[in-house]
C-alpha cells in the first residue's frame, strides 16, 4: 500500500520507523514544527529528520487544513493514512481521503483515556493496565472502530517513564499487524462502547501541583506519574516551591491537618494527607527525596531538619 503518515514526537517517530521497515511505501510524512510546550519537549524524536533521512517528502504543519497540504495528499494517492500523536483535529477531507481511511494509533486502551497524556492520567487514577489501540479515525476524538489493542500491566512501583517505554515498544508490532490485516482484507473493525468512554485534556504545570487533601495513595501515584523527565509533582514549603522526587505511602496511620510535616518514618518524612486525616485513620505520604528550584536534590530527612509547619499548594 501507499501510506501517508501524520505524527509527532517519539510516538510518531516509532510509527514512521515501523512503516519504513514494512513492505509498504511511505509517500509523505506530515508533522508539527518543534514546540516550546513543556510536555512536547519530552520524548521528542524528530519525525521530520527520520523522513528526510529516508528520502520521504515532509510537510510541517500545525493544522492540516490548508489547500497546499490537501493538494499534496491528493497527489500522493495514498491507500491509507497512519496517524500517531497528531496534536490537532484532522478534518474528514483528510481522514476519509484514502480508500482505507486513516488508522490512528493511540496510547490507551480505548474507549478509556481518549485525548491527551493517557499514561499519566491512567497512572494517577490507579489503572492496573495500559496499552495501545489501533482504530479507524472518524469525526469524534479517538472514537472510531477498533482494529486491535495490546495491553501491558502496571506494577505497584512503576513510573510513567516505565509505562512509556513499555507502551512505545508496542507501536511497531501494532502498526505492522494492523497494516497486514488491512492489506490482506482480514481487518475486522469493532465499534467502541461509547458508554465506557472517557476524555482527558492536555497536561500543564498546574496539573503537577499537589493537593494535600488527596489520599496519600493518590499523591504517591501522582509523584510516579510526574517522574523525570516530566515536570515533577510540586508543593511549597515556607513560600518556596519544592518538587517531590520520591515518595511512598506510610506504614502507620496519622491524624491531623493535610499538609502537616509530621514525623520521621523509615528513610523519609511523613506528610499528613487526605480530607479524613483528622480522624487518624489514613496513611500519610512518606516524602523521601525533594528537589529545590536551583535543581539540587536532597534526602527529605536532610531537607526537613525539624518537624512542624506545613506543605501548601501555593506560597
TrEMBL record:
The keyword rRNA processing does not apply. The keyword Kinase does not apply. Residues 206-306 form the Formyl transferase C-terminal domain. GO terms for cellular component: cytosol. Residues 1-169 form the Formyl transferase N-terminal domain. GO terms for molecular function: methionyl-tRNA formyltransferase activity. It comes from Streptomyces dioscori. Transmembrane segments: none annotated. This is Methionyl-tRNA formyltransferase. SUPFAM superfamilies: FMT C-terminal domain-like (SSF50486), Formyltransferase (SSF53328). Belongs to the Fmt family. Keywords: Protein biosynthesis, Transferase.
